[in-house]
Amino acid sequence: MYIDEVLRTFHTISGMTVGIYDTQFRCTHSVLETVAFCNLIQKSKVCMAKCIQSDKDALAQVAETGEPYIYSCPFGLFEAIYPIREQDTIIGYLIVGPAFRKESDTEEFP
């Protein structure tokens, strides 16, 4: 399927996990990259619940506003959610991340 090729290419270029979710927030396509930090945190049921709730809250924000949303999870990683539209109707969501922010990311280009 074409969308899977696009997601794999994006993952290859960025090194980030990327997924497509439907309007019920179910993953329909993804390229997952295991993040060791997330794996360690998610061993705790309490931490896993915080991760899931953070993602649900972010998806709800995008569903409500219709605008892309970049957020930091409870443990400091960044993710981004973009609505996928068909004309004026949201038909799904593109989720990218998690990503770490490096100190060099805050420096301005010369």
Integer-rounded radius of gyration: 15 Å
SSE run: HEEHHEEE
Strand order of the largest sheet: 2-1-5-4-3
Mean pLDDT: 84
Low-confidence regions:
none
Give helix % range. 25-40%
**Proportion of beta-strand residues:** 25-35%
Distance between the termini: 42 Å
**What is the overall shape?**
globular
The number of distinct β-strands equals 5
* Number of separate helices: 3
Major sheet: size, sense and barrel closure? 5 strands, antiparallel
Which class do the helix and strand fractions yield? Answer: alpha+beta
What topology does this entry show?
Elements lengths: L1 H13 L3 E4 L5 E5 L4 H6 L3 H21 L3 E4 L5 E9 L2 E11 L11
Antiparallel strand pairs: 1-2, 1-5, 3-4, 4-5
